[in-house]
Amino acid sequence: MQEPFDSHRGTFVPAVERLWEQTEIGPAGLDKAELDALLEKAIELYQIRSYDKSLKYFTRVLRSFRALEDAQGEARALSGMGLTYYALGNYGEAIAASHEALAIARQTLDRRTERQALGNLGNAYRHLNNLPKAIEYKQQSLDVAREIGDRRGEMAALNNLGMAYKALGDCPTAIAYYEESLALARELEDPQVESQVLRNLGNAHHALANYGQTIHCYEQLLAIAQHLEDQPLEMQILKNLASACYTLGDNDRAVIYQHQRLELAYQLRDHRNAAQALESLGVIYETLGDFQRALDCYEQRLSVARAIPDSHLEQQAIDSLKTVCYSLGDYARANQYDQA
Fold it and tell me: At a CB cut-off of 8 Å and minimum separation 6, what does 130 contact?
């Protein structure tokens, strides 16, 4: 089963484990096979981000495992609930469910559920900005993953430790963890995970003003996005690449990346991204002293703003056009925009 990333948060969230034995008949006609089917359904709903429905299934499974007095099944259902509460942004409930799962997993010596519960706790505490606790639990999750040879769990813990240290402002430590996680993602040939870790790594380098390394990460990420044919991701990466190149003073590359972004925005009919790319191109051309091309970009931006329509964006485009006209001494043309 593919292990999902929470792309919004940059956090690696390993999938719920599926290791139940399909034996024993429980009270009231319940048997393990039926519970496994319900648990599979809960996992599938979680994976397609139908979190409210997933939570209902996990809750039902939890009650049934408790009726069977199956402690290991109870811990796994609680761990799944912890993941789902986390995805819903209900971090208090995620922590409560994961603490229960952790206690039972340690009693039953279920190391995989222990690792998962520790990871859930670390992620939830990070979002509550309790970074010392987040790091404590994430480190324990990493230790358990290594002890049991869980490479994906190790990859998740390394990435998530990087997230916590970056939140602390310790970017060098974050980068070290991201690089270890990236190496595992490549070893496991998982491009989805590799792309998310590269994004996190690029952001950490950017925070340290290591723009050369930032560009190196984003260029690798761009290649993955193009391979996966993920055009919205590709457009976002092109934006970040152009920004980093512009910061470095590499205006020629910045122009290339913004034009590629603009082309994708037009293909996807994403007017707002198109307007942003045109604005950025206009700024770069102004920096280069190429005022005619800057005017062309701002004219196109004005047309896009009117097509949306967006009066605020339209006024911004007009203001940019007037500024360039004043720079050229073309006051008559500037006045025309006031009358438009």
Answer: none
- Report the alpha-carbon distance of residue 194 to residue 138 in Å, rounded: 19
Task: Show the tokens assigned to 74.
Answer: 């109870």
State percent of the chain over pLDDT 90. 83
Q: How distant, in Å, are the alpha carbons of 114, 132, 165 from that of 44? A: 21, 33, 32
How far, in Å, CA of 300 to CA of 290, rounded? 16
The span from the CA of 43 to the CA of 334, in Å, is 60
pTM of the predicted protein model: 0.82
Per the omega criterion (within 30 degrees of 0), is the bond before 309 cis? yes
Torsion of CA 41, 42, 46, 48, to 10 degrees: 20
Give the whole-number percent of the chain exceeding pLDDT 70.
Answer: 91
What is the rounded average pLDDT of the residues 75-102?
A: 97
SS3 at position 25:
strand
What is the H or E stretch that residue 20 is in?
none
Q: What's the pLDDT score for residue 30?
A: 57
Instruction: Report how far residue 292's alpha carbon sits from residue 308's, in angstroms, rounded to the nearest whole number.
Output: 25
pLDDT tens track for 286-337: 999 999 999 999 999 999 999 999 999 999 999 999 999 999 999 999 988 8
Q: How far is CA 198 from CA 151, 224, 301, 318, in A?
A: 18, 10, 32, 38
What's the pLDDT at 97? 98
β-partners of residue 205 are: none
CA distances from 73 to 18, 150, 287, 336 (A): 10, 20, 63, 73
Say if CB 38 and CB 64 are below 8 A apart.
yes
Tokens found for residue 60? 């039902």
pLDDT at 63 over 90: yes
Which residues lie closer than 8 Å to 155 by C-beta, 6 or more apart? Answer: 12, 181, 184, 185, 188, 193
Question: Residue 129's CB: how many other CB atoms inside 10 A?
Answer: 8
